[in-house]
Every structure is written in C-alpha cells, then in structure tokens.
Curli production assembly/transport component CsgE (Modicisalibacter ilicicola DSM 19980), 169 residues
Amino acid sequence: MLAKPIAWVVLLFALPLAQTQAEAPSGEASPPAEAGVPATADDRPEGEDGPSSEALAPAPEPALTGLLVDRTITMIGKTFFQKFSQLRLDSAILSNASLAIHERPSARWGSIVWVSEGTRILYEATLPPRLSEVDQYAEAAVGQVEQLILRRKVTEALQDNHDLADDEF
C-alpha cells in the first residue's frame, strides 16, 4: 500500500533533475544537482524570505477579455441579454470586461437577473413579466456596471498593496 505513494514522491523529485539536465547545452555536461540545493547562483533566493518583490513578475492578464456569457433561460432573460450586449458595445470600459449574465426565473415574481464579473455581482434586478420594460432595466444595468468597473479599476490603480491577490482579503 505504501509502495505507490513513495514511487510518486521519487518521481516528483526526479522530474526537476531530469529537466535541468535536459536544458544543458549539447556540448557541455550539466553538473549533478543535489536535492533541495539550487544549481546556479541565479537560482538562489535573494533574501532570507526568497526573491525580492521587484524580482517577481506581475500576474499575467487573462488571455481572453471582453467576453459576455449568456446564462439566461427565459425569453425575458434573452431579451435582457440582447439589449445589454448591444448597449455594452458602445462603452469602451464594458467592451473589454468579461461579464456573465445569469437568470433565475420565477413564475410568481418574474425573473431575477444579475450581471457578474468573476465572483463579484455588479447588478441585480427582478425583471417584470412584460417584455416592454426590459429595455429600461438593460440600460440601467449598463450604466451601473460601467460605473462599478470604472470605480474598481481606479481603486486598483491607486492602491499599492502587493500582499493581496485579486480576490483575497
């Protein structure tokens, strides 16, 4: 029972050693590296706690931006999504933001619709059962989401805290 986990541990330690030997130039032999000891001076940490914050590269931006995901179900939700997506194209801020529009239909109250960016809910409303009023809700949603995204971007630009990631407190 213990043979398999030990084999994985040996494989995990042997894999980085094999990669460093494979990266050596073809004419030179790479020196054997001891487990847990950096091979060159460039690999050693700059301080007791590791590399300095200037040496760390910022997190890469997402590869795809400007996506709008349709998670609506009913005709009212689809109409809201279409109007929101049309109005979103006119805004430079919203055209680069990746958003999702969700819907929870209810026969009693109408449809609950919310617009989210990642894990943050930016707009939430209960749509009435009439299609004629959906356009007003979509216009209000575009205005509110644009303001919240702009406010978040300004806050992130002015805040100088390298200790916390995007969603950490």
In short: The first strand starts at residue 68 and ends at 71. The beta strands are 68-71, 99-106, 110-117, 120-127. The helical segments are 3-22, 75-88, 92-95, 134-158. Residues 112 and 148 are 20 Å apart (CA to CA).
